[in-house]
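Board notes (copied after class):
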Amino acid sequence: MSDALEKAEAAVAKAESNSDVLAVAMAALEVAKAAQLQQQGSQQAPCQHQSKQRRSAAEWLGIACAVCVGGVGIAFASLALAILGGVAAIVVLVLRDMWRDMQRKGR
């Protein structure tokens, strides 16, 4: 931008020394271009403030469904672990009883 401004100043100085109407018009155009470039540069600065967008009802419904499905999955997993623990306890008790019977009969 400063390069364009320097060109405009040089054109103005040349136009003043020559007092040529065309040179003055060209200098005015250069100044206008420099001003326009400077104005565009200041307008292109993006806004740093970013507001959060609120979630729509469909997004909340999707989140609620995901939580429900996850909760049901956790419930089934807990139920499966409880059944597995019960079965393991029964197997251990049966095997222990069989071991005791074998020890008694072996004597």
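Comment from the instructor: Residues 57-106 form the longest helix (50 residues). The chain has three helices and no strands.
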